[in-house]
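Convert to structure. Protein one:
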Amino acid sequence: PALRRLSRHLLAHYQKGTRPVRDWRTTTNVAIDLMVYAILSVDEKNQVLTTYIWYRQHWTDEFLKWDPAHFDNLTQISLPVESIWVPDILINEFVDVGKSPHVPYVYVSHHGEVQNLKPIQVMTACSLDIYNFPFDVQNCSLTFTSWLHHIRDINLSLWRQPELVKFDRSVFMNQGEWELLYVLSHFQEFSVKSSDSYAEMKFYVVIRRRPLFYTVSLLLPSIFLMVMDIVGFYLPPHSGERVSFKITLLLGYSVFLIIVSDTLPATAVGTPLIGIYFVVCMALLVISLTETILIVRLVHKQDLQPHVPEWVKHLLLERATILLCIRDRKKFSQTRMQSLDTSRQVENNDSTAKLTPYVCEDPRESGAVGGTRSALAFAGRMEGSAALQEVLRETTAIRQLLEKREEFRDVAREWLQVGYVLDVLLFRVYLAAVLAYSITLGTLWSVWRDA
């Protein structure tokens, strides 16, 4: 048969150990091409990209030519790849031998053109930048070069035009986590020594992560918890439910971070921006809880506290109410004046409470104490004065108790108002901090996407 005769004819005296040129000055030109089939894995921790590509290379073998008329017009034949010379084209970024299927044959045409087509699982080192996870774009290079031969022996070129290679997604599996944006190609020469130059063809595989899964599972729960923390400020500050609510939020966020810690990429080089976002959110929750504890401490246990200092009243009950546009600032001012009047009344009442037993006596009787009174009348008057003195003493004690209770209520009311105004002030500062942080984070992501 023609196939056997042609195979024996081509391989009878073939020397696969030497470069297939008749003149050693002739350069063997190897045209290469690749198509990305799938992105198998992106290992951020070890900085390894695993891809599956369809690799093609083409060169001319001057010892594998024949006349088709002598072999039944046969223009093409497949030969074992182990029986002919194959260029030593390798990928510089190789870090491990992948599980690539072995293709044992190559196609040879009657002009001596050899086509080596094979799929390759490529495990290459890649500098992965995870700062913008999960909105990151990775650019990994595949550098094809001859490991031994100089450029005067083996030169490299593209099989297809660079524009066709760039946007070729015809065989790419587009259902995974990563999407292929484009593949750039670039030829260059490099030299180890001044006299030895090598040819290399670089392919830049640019891929982008699909962020929908991470947005739903990471960002949205965190945003919901932060919104609930802001809503928690509308709970009454004098109730204990706010502290319990914020502690529950903080514990829930801690559990959430433990769950998602395995999802975040880990590298020794840098931290993703979303990790910083989670840490800042945790810090904001702690600050919110601290503010709530401070407010609750102010509005409770007022019996152990003195009157609100005048400078605090001036800053919070007058200046801050105007600055914060609180509608009840007139009520705060009136309450402050009432507390001052109450303090003055307490001082006046304390001075008038010192009554003598003779206040209720008639002046005319006091002047006739001499010998006109009998011993019996004098004794009766003394008994009545003692009873009246006891009644006055009890009445004074009750009045002082009521005034003291009213004073405690005034102190409690003052601290409650101070706590309310301080709560509004700290809430607005906290809200401004959250908004500023959100705007900063959005700006950083926008700048990165534009860049």
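Protein two, convert as well:
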Amino acid sequence: MKINQELRTGIDKRNANQKTSAAGSKPFSEMVLKQESKLHLQQLNTLMANVEEAGRRIAKSRNMRDLSRYKSLVRRFVQEAVDYGLKVKQSGSFDYSGNSRSLVTVEQLDQHLIELTESLLNEDQSSIDILAKIGEIKGLLINLYT
């Protein structure tokens, strides 16, 4: 009889180990998701830094090549933000034409990029005006992922 009790305690220990390993799988998947979101956020921060640097270059050089690079970086940032699950803030309200408010930020970004292009083409615009437009675009981009 003594042998059966020792055998039973060994089985109980194995069952306890299996229960802890099954419970441990959930935190692992949560950790993977957290790390994935951290990497995406880090990638967005890197893209934002690239956008800021390209904006500074535009203010100094005022040429079309830098403007084209800036526009492509802004588009890439918006695409990354949408692809990696950063949800565009949607409110329950709609504008007069029935469109949701979530599209307003992207439309504003496009409008500001067009205005920035026109400012660069217009030789009379000062660097301060161009920097103001770049700052507005940066604010809209930050609004996308905060």
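The helical segments are 2-61, 64-83, 102-121, 127-145. The chain has one domain: 32-142.
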